[in-house]
Recover the amino acids of this structure.
């Protein structure tokens, strides 16, 4: 399957990365090179093989359902590009 | 006392305990060397005040007789580890100015043992690269050169700053991380030792995530003994990482006997790649002969799905990266783009990520987005995860047949020149990890040991792959190989 500039633009949109129109042909080309490389996987017979979910046979641990952390508003907001009155500030989301 | 920065961890530890040297003296020697080595661009955030404070505290502990193995030893920390109050950028513009308000478990373990942090080390952006050329800080440079040729060479990647700093004796050792070969390939390119432990051995908490099912931290050191010492301090169960293994950490150093008599060493036939340089084949044959002479039994083995490891990796790793890197949105930390009048939240995300991420990171996030998108998830992502199951099965079968360790080349070539791959397509760069990436996909421990030099005078390394949780035995086999190879070459100082 070949990636054209329309698909490249759609992927960039999904990834929330702004790509200028003039950069799309080169990007589509790179995708095609990488996907061409990945196509080799189609040679492998994977019939009846489970997709790996965990590389070590282990069950995720569970812990007591109790609060173990919190009351760190200052630390949570410390690195925010824009924090006001104890909140993260962002541009208008709803028209 | 001169050249304290050239000591190994083991030598420095022994001299500290014998009161022949202090941690402050060791630390000052390294700090002076770092100041004089800007040309390598290895240290990108220096922390001399923290280092000297930690060194003084370590000297007090040593004086009181409370001295764990790493106490007082100055090391460098890869920029991927979050260190409290100290820039931790993953070599990305998007994390410019980020000051973590917490400490990663691995660095906390090191500090609890009295280890001294000299600063943060250069790397590929978000650990995505094999040459340290994707860093927002610029290239780290390999202290090794091709004889008298002054071409600047890559130290490898992604842990390129760590490799360069250890090889150039700017620090006694360094932390690295390895998702597809990012500890072992740079170690091989710079003539040092690097081990990627079994997945789950070192906590990932506080390590900036690239591909969570593959990422592991490990030490990069001058010797195998040093790797054993430092891994013992970095490793351990951590309830804050749900994939951290609840297992005892053995005394790795105590198990270095060098005795490999009767050990079965597998030589996988699929690792003889087409077009592999003759000197790499020769290095591998010599390493095989060394282990045989040391009493190991050499057996040919087959890992039939080897060829599919890189393509599977380049589906799984970008997929996980696209998900992990979604958090860089300009809201909670790091860079936010300047917005134009009328820009809303979507423009903020798109502009922030376009400005903050470098080209390779953008490319991988978008490839990951594509392979996870509706209609392609099964064809790409699920197929790659099935192939991953088969790759792990290959190793399981080799170990079930009695193989104790597997010997392979670490890299398909010696270090190449910075910029030499700039015209190549991305897949050419990815091929650097052809021998190492299988190990991440199977979650196994792997170690790179320098065993020879190329015709051009550059270091070359071999890789040993061990059983899951078998780091002690793996380190011992590596120790036997290191002893037999007797690699002592150092780069001539030009910087």
């Amino acid at each position: 399957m070949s990636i054209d500039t329309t698909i490249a633009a759609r992927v960039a949109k999904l990834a929330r990365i702004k790509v200028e129109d003039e950069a799309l042909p080169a990007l589509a080309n790179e995708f095609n090179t990488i996907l061409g490389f990945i196509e080799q996987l189609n040679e492998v017979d994977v019939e009846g093989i489970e997709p790996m979910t965990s590389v070590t046979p282990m069950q995720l641990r569970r812990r007591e359902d109790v609060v173990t952390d919190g009351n760190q508003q200052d630390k949570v907001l410390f690195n925010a590009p824009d924090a006001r009155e104890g909140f993260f500030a962002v541009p208008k989301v709803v028209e | 006392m001169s050249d304290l920065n050239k000591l190994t961890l083991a030598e420095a530890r022994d001299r500290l305990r014998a009161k022949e040297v202090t941690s402050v003296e060791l630390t000052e020697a390294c700090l002076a060397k770092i100041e004089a080595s800007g040309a390598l661009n290895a240290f990108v955030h220096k922390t001399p005040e923290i280092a000297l404070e930690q060194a003084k505290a370590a000297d007090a502990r040593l004086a009181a007789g409370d001295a764990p193995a790493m106490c007082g030893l100055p090391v460098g920390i890869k920029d991927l580890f979050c260190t409290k109050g100290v820039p931790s950028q993953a070599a990305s513009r998007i994390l410019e100015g980020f000051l973590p308000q917490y400490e990663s478990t691995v660095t906390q373990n090191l500090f609890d043992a009295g280890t001294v942090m000299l600063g943060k080390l250069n790397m590929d952006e978000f650990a995505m690269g094999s040459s340290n050329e994707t860093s927002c800080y610029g290239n780290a440079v390999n202290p090794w050169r091709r004889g008298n040729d002054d071409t600047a060479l890559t130290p490898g990647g992604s842990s390129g700053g760590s490799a360069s700093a250890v090889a150039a004796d700017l620090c006694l050792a360094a932390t690295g991380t390895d998702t597809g070969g990012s500890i072992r390939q740079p170690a091989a390119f710079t003539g040092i030792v690097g081990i990627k432990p079994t997945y789950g051995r070192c906590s990932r908490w506080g390590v900036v995530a690239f591909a969570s099912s593959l990422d592991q931290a490990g030490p990069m050191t001058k010797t195998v003994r040093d790797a054993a010492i430092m891994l013992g301090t970095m490793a351990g169960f951590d309830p804050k990482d749900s994939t951290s293994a609840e297992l005892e950490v053995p005394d790795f150093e105590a198990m270095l006997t060098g005795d490999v008599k009767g050990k079965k060493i597998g030589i996988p036939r699929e690792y003889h790649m087409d077009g592999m340089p003759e000197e790499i084949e020769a290095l591998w044959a010599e390493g095989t002969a060394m282990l045989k002479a040391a009493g190991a039994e050499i057996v040919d083995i087959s890992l039939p799905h080897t060829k599919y490891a890189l393509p599977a990796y380049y589906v799984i790793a970008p997929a996980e990266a696209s998900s992990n890197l979604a958090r860089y949105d300009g809201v909670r930390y790091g860079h936010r783009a300047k917005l134009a009048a009328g820009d809303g939240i979507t423009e903020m995300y798109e502009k922030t990520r376009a400005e903050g991420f470098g080209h390779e990171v953008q490319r991988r996030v978008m490839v990951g987005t594509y392979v996870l998108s509706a209609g392609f998830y099964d064809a790409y992502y699920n197929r790659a995860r099935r192939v991953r199951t088969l790759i792990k099965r290959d190793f399981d079968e080799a170990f079930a047949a009695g193989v104790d360790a597997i010997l392979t080349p670490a890299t398909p070539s010696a270090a190449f020149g910075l910029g030499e791959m700039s015209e190549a397509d991305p897949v050419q760069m990815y091929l650097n990890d052809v021998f190492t990436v299988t190990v991440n996909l199977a979650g196994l421990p792997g170690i790179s040991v320098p065993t020879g030099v190329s015709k051009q005078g550059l270091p070359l390394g071999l890789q040993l792959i061990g059983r899951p949780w078998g780091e002690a035995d793996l380190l011992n086999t590596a120790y036997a190989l290191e002893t037999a190879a007797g690699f002592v070459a150092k780069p001539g100082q030009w910087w």
Summary: Chain A touches chain B through 50 residues (CB under 8 Å). Residues 5-42 of chain A form one domain. Chain A has a mean pLDDT of 93.
